[in-house]
Amino acid sequence: MTNSFRDQFKFYKRKDTPLDMSNIVEIDDRMNPEKCTRRIQFEDTIEVENKIFGMKKASDWFVYQISCVPGNVNGISTLKKLRWATFGYHHNWNTKVYSESSKSEFPPDLKRLCHCLADILNFKNFDPQAAILNLYNFGSSLSGHTDHSEVNLEAPLFSFSFGQSAIFLIGGKTVEENAVPLLIESGDIIIMSQYSRLCYHGIPRIIAANKEAWNSSNVTQNKLSNNSHDKIFDDDIIEELYDSKQWTPYNEYVNKNRINLNIRQVLLPGQQSLDI
């Protein structure tokens, strides 16, 4: 008998011979790793709910995966492959065209930050409506491109950098023109508007940061929390990120990666929709 599904189905369906159980995997606590299985351990995160339904603690469960026929992909295992996310008007990577049918609420705290920067830099009436979060590891790059998808090309584009450093290259309206290489470090903001948006720019290389600016003690928890009269940040988030245990995974990520968040205005002043 082969191991094909068809042959095995016929084999176990047969009633004219004694059932051979020698190759059947039994689900118990004596699972044999050679039989293509492995145990998965869970923590007691919702013990109260378990007791309500009369179940054992999650740490006492016997849960197994058939390793040669895995189930759904674990989101954590694919996290390292994540390269971008979008907010507000969602950027279409294939058509490079925005759509009213593909947008979500723009994060209010990020919008407030952009308004603050725009006011200081005299970009009046700037309205952040779309954002792209780019995630880079040390082997990543971003090919040369121009930012021309938005209806409003006069408005500035704010590009925030966190974590590892990058070489940012900006040239002219063709790839043959001379380019200027800039070192972009954690905390830097690039602002592009009008002509510069239409110039070719990109990230040829990510390089190690020479200091951990993200672990700076310049900003205290009290300084961020003292805005109760005009709420900007969620105090629960601030408290969580100042907890060393909660901060650890973020710290580990930016120690090996670069995070770039760029924000742009899509519509013209006074324009309410792409469809108008």
TrEMBL record:
Q: Which GO terms describe its molecular function?
A: broad specificity oxidative DNA demethylase activity; ferrous iron binding; oxidative RNA demethylase activity
List the coiled-coil residues.
none
**Ranges for the Alpha-ketoglutarate-dependent dioxygenase AlkB-like domain?**
78-264
Q: Could you identify this protein by its name?
A: Alpha-ketoglutarate-dependent dioxygenase AlkB-like domain-containing protein
User: Is this entry keyworded Iron?
Assistant: yes
Cellular-component GO terms for this entry: cytoplasm; nucleus
Question: What Gene3D superfamilies does its record include?
Answer: Alpha-ketoglutarate-dependent dioxygenase AlkB-like (2.60.120.590)
Cofactor(s) named in the record: Fe(2+)
Q: How is the cofactor bound?
A: Binds 1 Fe(2+) ion per subunit.
Any one biological process term the GO annotation gives: oxidative RNA demethylation
Amino-acid positions noted as binding Fe cation in the UniProt annotation, renumbered to this chain: H145, D147, H201
Record key words, sorted: Dioxygenase, Iron, Metal-binding, Oxidoreductase
